[in-house]
Amino acid sequence: MIFNNVNFDTYFKNYPTEDGFFGKYGGCYISPELQTAMKEITHAYNTICKSRKFIDELRRIRREFQGRPTPISHLQRLSDSIGTGVQLYAKREDLNHSGAHKLNHCMGEALLAKYMGKKKVIAETGAGQHGVALATAAAYFGLECDIYMGKVDIEKQAPNVARMKILGAKVVEVTDGLQTLKEAVDAAFAAYAKEYKDAIYCIGSVLGPHPFPLMVRDFQSVVGIEAREQFVDMTGELPDAIVACVGGGSNAMGMFAGFLNDPVDIYGIEPLGRGTALGDHAASLKYGTEGIMHGFNSIMLKDENGEPAPVYSVASGLDYPSSGPEHAFLHDLGRVKYDVINDEETIDAFFTLSRLEGIIPAIESSHAVAYGIKLAQTMKKGSVLINLSGRGDKDMDYVIEKYGIR
What we know:
Elements: E1 2-3, E2 6-7, H1 11-14, E3 21-22, E4 25-26, H2 32-47, H3 52-66, E5 72-74, H4 76-82, E6 87-92, H5 103-116, E7 120-125, H6 129-141, E8 144-150, H7 151-156, H8 158-166, E9 170-174, H9 181-195, E10 199-201, H10 212-235, E11 241-245, H11 250-256, E12 265-273, H12 284-287, E13 289-293, E14 296-300, H13 325-333, E15 337-342, H14 343-357, H15 363-378, E16 383-388, H16 396-403
Parallel strand pairs: 6-16, 7-8, 7-10, 8-9, 11-12, 11-16, 12-15
Antiparallel strand pairs: 1-2, 3-4, 5-6, 13-14
Helix pairs in contact: 3-5, 5-6, 5-10, 6-8, 10-11, 14-15
């Protein structure tokens, strides 16, 4: 399929380029010292991760440890409640070991660290799912693990903080700035700059300097590859639309990767939060402009000085002032339609899916569920496949405290 002069038959061979660009987005804008570390990781990824031994071991881990493939569930009662005849389905990444899609790339990155002879993995986390996943991977491979997390997110995500500590990770509280995901990334990068010879930085999404947007996308593509095969096997056809939430965008790129070359509508859903005013949302692709942060060029939300703007979302995993460079590229191409869902719609979807299907979704995933419901209400027929990127155990205390039981 050719879309806006991009041939999606060969898309994954051409993007990113050798220097890490998706069109004008991406790249590796970091210090010369860290450039050396990135070149080491890039070389290792292009050699070690392409070897039969590595691939076989990762497949075994996914099968025997992670519990892959995760299933697709037909959301029959939710579909019936909409009443248009449109059928909703969910790719159940909440059933991946540790409760979210994050383990898909964390096991790959930690396995790479092992092959490279590194002794420690370093990462940031917002909602805590990436931190839990990396702590899980570190425990599995016998690696040290430092997780940087903003103070605000530590307070919102206490269950995941406890899980990380039980798994043996050191959780480092970040108290700078807004004390959320952006500041956690800042702190993790600073720590990695001092320890890169013995450690590897395992970025939690399809962002950061090259090769991380490539690596995380490739490790997460198992979601979309599985989902496409499963959906066709289940229904005999492709879905009419697929939906995933987008913060940095790892779960979304994993899902989209399986369908970019198909005649399927693709929707990436950002958090509108409390409204459209700067500081009340984290919808960078909807309201942002081109800019560089954390070592990559993408679309970002900026303040009056051109610096990363304050952001907000009810979902700790989505409150980031930019998005992965591949999302920016697909946004400009028009291949993926990026839209927004606010906090209230998100929490309504959280309870609706729980009550009608017995599935408690992560608040991040609830953005996609809310949009899937809204989309189905506008369609006269067909099907919508939602990437249910994580489970909501981590969010229950926060939701009950702030919103009560609906």
